[in-house]
């Protein structure tokens, strides 16, 4: 049974041209077959992938250690780069030959590398890795979106809880102030009632005093004799 990695075809070039660079993995179908396969197994070697339109366009796997060594020597020049989250795809020019290396890295570590003799083949491989990196990063994109949404929801919850606390405080203040106003109104009503009673008592006392004054004046006037005023004619 053969296990193959299926990838969408790239325009103008067969998808298998790049996929063939990874080779095929044989999987025995039974325990006996596994034992037989283990005895006859041969080390995997990079497989060349010949692109259409001539045999000069070749893409093959490259050794990670070799590519890392060239990077350390600054022997590679970056022509194109795609970064999506932790995945980086690079199209590199090796000036010495010249030839091209196409790399796929994850979290700063080389994961896969291809080598091409011509730019057209390298460009196809770059697009292939580019599509793969985008697909791999889809889950990280979704995670980032969910993190942002959750952070937004947490912020909204915190703001809502703060608003609830403010409204609760306002309500408590309102109830307290209402109670104070009610007590104040009752106190003022009592004072008004007392003042009204005091006014009535004072008015009654004043009326009584006025009547007494009138009586005293009347009595005082009665004690004055009647004097007749005579007119003298001149």
Task: Walk me through what this model shows.
The chain has 234 residues and is an alpha+beta fold. Helix content is 54%, strand content 18%. Strands 3-4-8-7-6-5 form a 6-stranded antiparallel beta sheet. The longest helix is centred in the last third of the chain and has 104 residues, at 119-222. The protein is rod-shaped, with a radius of gyration of 53 Å. The model is unreliable at 1-15 and 23-56 (pLDDT under 50).
- Tell me the helix content: 40-55%
Instruction: Give the strand order, joined by hyphens, for the main sheet.
Output: 3-4-8-7-6-5
Distance between the termini: 167 Å
Q: Pick out the low-confidence regions.
A: 1-15, 23-56
Q: What multimeric state do the chains show? A: single chain
Largest sheet features: 6 strands, antiparallel
Number of strands: 8
Rough shape?
A: rod-shaped
Q: Strand content of the residues, in percent?
A: 15-25%
Strand pairing plus helix content: what structural class?
alpha+beta
Over all CA atoms, what is the radius of gyration?
Answer: 53 Å
- Taking all residues together, what is the mean pLDDT? 80
Number of helices: 4
Order of helices and strands: EHEHEEHEEEEH
């Amino acid at each position: 049974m053969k296990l193959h990695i299926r990838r969408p075809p790239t325009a103008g070039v067969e998808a298998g041209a790049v996929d063939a660079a990874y080779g095929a993995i044989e999987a025995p179908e039974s325990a006996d077959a596994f034992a037989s396969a283990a005895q006859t197994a041969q080390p995997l070697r990079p497989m060349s992938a010949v692109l259409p339109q001539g045999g000069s366009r070749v893409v093959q796997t490259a050794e990670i250690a070799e590519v890392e060594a060239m990077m350390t020597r600054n022997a590679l020049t970056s022509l194109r780069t795609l970064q999506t989250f932790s995945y980086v795809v690079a199209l590199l020019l090796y000036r010495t030959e010249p030839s091209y290396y196409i790399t796929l890295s994850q979290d700063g570590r080389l994961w896969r590398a291809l080598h091409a003799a011509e730019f057209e083949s390298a460009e196809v491989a770059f697009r292939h890795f580019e599509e793969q990196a985008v697909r791999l990063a889809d889950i990280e994109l979704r995670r980032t979106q969910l993190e942002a949404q959750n952070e937004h929801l947490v912020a909204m919850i915190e703001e809502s809880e703060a608003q609830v606390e403010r409204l609760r405080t306002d309500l408590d203040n309102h109830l307290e102030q209402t109670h104070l106003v009610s007590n104040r109104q009752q106190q003022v009503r009592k004072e008004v009632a007392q003042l009204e009673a005091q006014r009535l008592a004072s008015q009654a006392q004043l009326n009584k005093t006025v009547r007494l004054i009138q009586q005293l004046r009347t009595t005082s006037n009665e004690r004055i004799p009647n004097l007749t005023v005579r007119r003298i004619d001149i």
